[in-house]
Amino acid sequence: MNNPYLPIPVTIKKITIENEARDIKTFDLVFNVKKETEKFKYTCGQFAEISMLGIGEAPIGIASSPMDEDLVQFTVKKYTTGVVTSALHNLCPGDMIGIRGPYGNGFPMKDFEGSNLVIVGGGFALTTLRSLTRYILHKKNRAYFKDITVLYGARSPGELIYKSELKQWDQRDDINVHLTVDRGDKNWKGRVGLVPNVLSEIAPRSENSIVLVCGPLIMVKYTMLPLMDLGFKPEKIFFSLEMRMKCGIGKCGRCNIGPKYVCKDGPVFTYKELQGLPQEY
Amino acid sequence: MENKKFKIIKKKEILKLLESLKKEYSIFVPIEDNGDARFSEFKSGQDIFWDYRNTKISPKEILFPQAETLFCFGPGAEVKAEGSTPGGKDYLIFGIRPCDAQAISLLDKVFGGEDFEDPYYLERRKKTTVISLACSKPQIDCFCTSLKGKPENEEGADIILFDLGEDVLAGAVTKKGEKFIEKQNKWFKDAGQSDVDKKDKLMDLSLNKIKSQIDIQNIKEKLDNAFNDLLWNEIHQKCLGCGICTYFCPTCHCFDITDEINPKAADSKTPEGKRVRCWDSCMYPLFTLHASGHNPRPTYKERMRQRIMHKFNYCPENFKEIFCVGCGRCIRNCPVNLDLREVLVSLMSLGSLCKDKKI
Question: A98 and chain B: CB distance < 8 Å anywhere?
Fold first, then answer.
């Protein structure tokens, strides 16, 4: 019987510090055994358990795109109370860790084809949306999707992650990128304002559109108001949720919202699905 | 039950039978231990505690141990999964009460499942034969008949036994049970009608001893809209959050996964140790605490609600089964006498007075 609890060894190839506070890092991971790369087939929005022997495991969303070959990326924020994330941030390129997965339902990419996509991210929760954006911008996939709008906000300019990639996206003419910060600084020439307010201002059209929202709960909650005003239907709004997890495979019993397990029935839910679930997340 | 072919075996012979099976099986039997009953691996010369009421700790620990090593790691060593049964022997669980046998059939649904299988539980389970002992000792807080149970409930058992005093009546429930009895045929005789009559009488007596009867017929539907009910503010008031109800519960299956490091090798660059899973409890605040500090179930109220809803609403939704067998352990062992039956009765009254109570 296949043992889902065994982590697969990977080596850290590169570590990128993403923000000014230096507590968000992107880890480029390569499987030690090449065969495992092919086995680790994932879709945008899925996650994996990052495993450090002697420390523990933590569920982290996959930041790379399924189109990226030979490596898997995770962007991890360090929490001082987070045992695994703290230990992970102490590692160097060349160090070995484990991952197991991919887990969760991911975004239904096939269903999105032929639609406009509005991508709304806040803080470091942009990770799985970055996976999705990379995927749809890939030359093999771009034609399947219509207009793409990205709205991304962070507390301050220094806290925006994936800066160089955001710049690249901005330079393309097949995607609209809007960046905003809660508070600017003297070098910031861009927009200042909270994500929900900026969303009202840029007012993407809801007709034939899908919205994907990832961010702090408070942002997600207040983003619903402009989305409803703009006429987006609850079944066209997608979220990715976070929960404390252990097993990642629906056994250990802690990540449920009502009868749904975030690890296997989620982490992606539509607003309509969430409306039918208890507010316990 | 009516057309079952029953066999009969002398009680004294059972010890000899188990003795003869020791090479083939790891055998677990109820034994007396400081006035309580518990399951223990059968040793030569050991007596079986035939008259036990029920064990304090549920026998789920045989298939789903309180702590078990998932794998070991160390310098130079690959990650190595542990074998699931000691010595690779098959398991024989002998004399488990019908409520606990039914609980095993519920755990099967959790650890099996369509999408992911739990190899540790399932491999052990596959090798296990369950011989249950029909209940003649219901306790004051037993309420199995309010659920699916009864003193001679067969669910989860391969063979069911009835203690008739000198003799023990045995009936195969599954093919596995049939084969077991066939193989051990020399120990058994065909039962006569008088034995079966004796059994029926015993079960009638036993059924009458279960005084606790609550009507929770459509509890799942009642709870469908109860999440935001004000009643949850009251239900949890007594609760200390000690989690004993979940530890003793034969159907509770939530677990934690942690790493244990060999202290001698703690300073080494490649840690040596093991990854362990152990029982966890939804009654603890850390159960759902995020690293960010956010906790979706921050108080006793949400945690108590989770425990009840998980058993009586979420599991019926996901597995079409209530995850309670009415064994009464959570009632007997609760330090503040928080009685699950009272909680269920009050939940059943929901909607009968005023609708749409919201917090």
Answer: yes
Q: Write the CA distances from A59 to A74, A99, B251, B336, B346, integer angstroms.
A: 10, 9, 26, 37, 38
Angstrom distances, CA of residue A256 to CA of A251, A266, B258, B292:
10, 10, 20, 18
Which residues 186-245 of B are in CB contact (within 8 Å) with A? 227-228
Interface mutation target, options B63, B107, B117, chain A, most CBs of A under 10 Å: B117
Question: What is the domain partition of chain A in residue ranges?
Answer: 8-102, 109-240
Measure A149 CA to nearest chain B CA, in Å: 29
What residues does each domain of chain B span? 6-209, 219-348
Which pLDDT score is estimated for B263?
81
The CATH number corresponding to A8-102 among 2.40.30.10, 2.30.30.30, 3.30.428.10, 2.40.50.140 equals: 2.40.30.10
Alpha helices in chain B (DSSP H): 11-21, 60-63, 98-111, 119-126, 175-183, 193-209, 219-224, 231-235, 244-248, 300-309, 315-319, 329-333, 340-348
User: What pLDDT score does B3 carry?
Assistant: 55
Q: Is A90 on the interface with B (CB under 8 A)?
A: no
Residue B49: predicted pLDDT: 92
Contacts of B227 in chain A (CB under 8 A): 258, 278, 280
**pLDDT at position B84, please?**
62
Of B73, B254, B259, the CB nearest to A56: B259
| In CATH, A109-240 is 3.10.450.50 | no
Closest partner CB to B81 (pick from A3, A243, A258): A3
Positions of chain B with pLDDT under 50: 1-2, 355-359
Query: Both ends of chain B: CA-CA distance in Å?
Result: 49
Q: Which candidate from A53, A56, A278 shows the least CB-CB separation from B227?
A: A278
- Phi/psi at A2 (nearest 5 deg)? -65, 130
Confidence of residue A181 (pLDDT cuts 50, 70, 90): very high
Residue contact B257–A57, C-beta within 8 A = yes
Is it the case that residue A80 has pLDDT exceeding 70? yes
The pLDDT value given to residue A126? 95
Q: Do B254 and A217 touch (CB under 8 A)?
A: no
Q: Is B268 touching A (CB cutoff 8 A)? A: no
Q: pLDDT for A29-47, tens place per residue?
A: 999 999 999 999 999 999 9
pLDDT confidence of residue B357: 45
Size of interface A-B (CB pairs under 8 A): 119
Helix (H, G, I), strand (E, B) or coil at A183: coil
pLDDT at B5: 85
Write down the mean pLDDT value for chain A.
Answer: 94
Please identify which residue in the block is written with the tokens 């880890």.
A27
Question: What is the ipTM metric for this complex?
Answer: 0.91
Could you tell me the two tokens for A34?
């090449």
| A252 touches B at CB < 8 Å | yes
pLDDT value at position B358? 43
